[in-house]
Amino acid sequence: MARWGMVIDLDRCTGCGACVAACKVENNVQVVSPAEGERGRRMHWLRLLVEARGEYPHVEVRIAPNLCMMCENPPCTKVCPVHATYRGEDGLVGQIYPRCIGCRYCMAACPYSVKAFNWGSPEWPEALLSTLNPDVSMRPKGVVEKCTFCYHRLQLGREKARAEGRPLRESDYQPACVHSCPADAMTFGDLDDALSPAAQLSRSTRATRALEHLGTEPRVFYLEKRDAPL
Amino acid sequence: MRRFEPDSTRDETLFRPIEQTGARFYLTVSVLVAIILFALVMYTRQVVLGLRVTGMMQPVTWGFYIVNFVFFIGISHAGTLISAILRLTQAEWRRPITRMAEVITAIVLAIGALHPILDLGRPDRVMNVFLFGRLQSPLLWDVTSISAYFAASTVYLFLPLIPDIALIRERGKKHRWLYTFMSWGWQGTPEQWKVLTRAINIMMIVVVPIAVSVHTVISYIFAMTLQSGWHSTIFGPYFVVGAIFSGIAALFVAMIAFRSAFRLQAYLKLVHFQQLAKLLLAMSILWTYFTFGEYLTGYYGGEPEEMKTLLYKVAGRYAPLFWTMVVCNFVVPVVLLSSRRLRTIPGILVSSITVLIGMWLERLIIVVPSLENPRMPFPGRIYIPSLTEISLFTGALALFALGFVLFSKFFPIVSVWEVQEGRALGKEETVERVESYLPDDEVSHAGA
Question: How many domains does one find in chain A?
């Protein structure tokens, strides 16, 4: 079975935020009022992580898309009391919204802070109603959600391949963020397929993973900048 | 087995609050009920609108509810554990104290266990914990351990209550049917005394490991994650020590309140306070030792993410709260309780109140700063509780007080038969016990 993973090239990433917008629209992620947003209730499955690294005079601003790392050894699924977040057969970490009791233990346990909570009921402005994606289920108030690697696209891709009587190809399944990246900074594919560009890039000497020392084994790789000070 | 007959005509002071109801009782109850009703309204609003009515947000996804959960469950260790240890060690001065300690446990445990439910985004799905429960989750360990503790401590409260209920039944001044029912046919026969003593002895031993397990697994909620400031091996014993520490402080406050409200000066004497105060002092020093060990190892190792949280607590935004905690939990109790001159009832009251404040701050300082400093940079925000969270906190405190007041309306807050047993047999037993410690030849000398 394919081991789906992502490689993000920080040399190519311009920090434009196209992936953030694409993710939000693709996955019907709740839009909160500006006032609520100011109170820290903004919801993202993918956000841009901006940090200053290094010490003067060797300072670099590092901008990196931050999304669910799809850990091979996820700290969040371990602590869930009701099996509402779990690691599926294909190794992708999923959420069962109708089962989640909203204790937010998985959020406290995730070292990457990528899980989002529905602090209130989703309210959709008239203009956004028509943009809702029918392939992605809506989440009620009080449950935790997070990036699924656009799992619905994998399901659609599988159906398409089956209908055409051929095996699934990488081009059948690309998450919305990867699809939308104008700088081609994100590469998605089977990390076990030696011919896949994603697998090849993940073995690059520039490849790192976030908080690697914790042993969570993320499936999201970052290619650090060539001229990074660190 | 030696027998003695509890006397329902003695110790009038202990029965008076049950049989006479004054205006003060109704006033207290109405005020407490009003506070609880307000909290109930605020909670209903939270259920309707969602958790956005709280001050929690990303990345501080746990706030007052979890802090108070840990705090209240900690208080519950006052009781049963202290009462069990005092019984086990046959401390004669325990007699007027144990009942109150056991009541604290039963009430505060029920209130504490409610808090994770207040915190749920979907309280309507709380049954999922039983339907789909994963025993690998520390939350399930909590559910298991707290239910066991609640069951054990209510039994442990009820057993020594039976002879007292029978005494009220004999006096026959109030709700005869209730006390007849609740005394379960107690006649005080030698056989019944034997069974009761045996049952109490079994329960006091069973209760100790369960109590220790409760706060250990509560600490595991935090310690089992990888978060900085939480992932620590000493959290289990550290939490247990803190729990007993805050529990004794709560017990003192209850003792002092009932002593003055029910005029129990003859029963709760200075010596009782001074004996228990030594335990409070010991726990204060033990707590300080654990805190020192926890922070020094974190600091010396200097792991960057660990350091960020640690400095945030001791020298950053949380520093005022952190050092207030140190003053409340260490400086005040050590100063007031080590000197015989200051170890008076007002001195003990002051140190108990500061310990309660300090231990509440300790729970806050454990839960929130770690969440405010996630390993991955997150736009920094500080957690400020909303009116909803504050009103549910005061509601919980009021519920605790109400539970105590109602209990004392129906049952003696000081164990009547145990006090009488102390009078009848305690002195003799103690003399015998002390004699048995003496070297054999001395005893035979005396005999010869």
Answer: 1
Q: Is B116 in CB contact (< 8 Å) with chain A? A: yes
B237 and chain A in contact, CB less than 8 A: no
Tell whether A49 lies on the interface with B, counting CB pairs under 8 A.
yes
Hey, is B380 helix, strand or coil? coil
Q: Using alpha carbons only, what angle is made at residue A163 by residues A159 and A164, rounded to the nearest 5 degrees?
A: 120
Q: In which domain, by residue range, is B343 found?
A: 21-371+381-432
- For A95, list phi and psi in degrees, rounded to 5: -125, 140
Instruction: Out of A40, A80, A214, name the one closest to residue B134 (CB).
Output: A80
Chain-chain contact of B52 with A36 (C-beta, under 8 angstroms): yes
Alpha helices in B224-269 (DSSP H): 235-261
- As given in the structure block, the two tokens for residue B196 are 């009761």
From B52, B132, B381, residue closest to A82, measured CB to CB: B132
| A79–B125 C-beta distance less than 8 A | no
pLDDT of residue B448: 43
Which one of B43, B66, B122 makes the best mutation probe of the A interface by having the most chain A beta carbons within 10 Å? B122
Look up residue B230 and give its DSSP letter.
Answer: T
Low-confidence stretches of chain B (pLDDT beneath 50): 1, 447-448
Tally of helices (H runs) and strands (E runs) in chain B: 19, 0
Is A44 domain-assigned? yes
Q: Is residue B395 part of a domain?
A: yes
- pTM of the prediction? 0.93
The domain of A111 spans 4-223
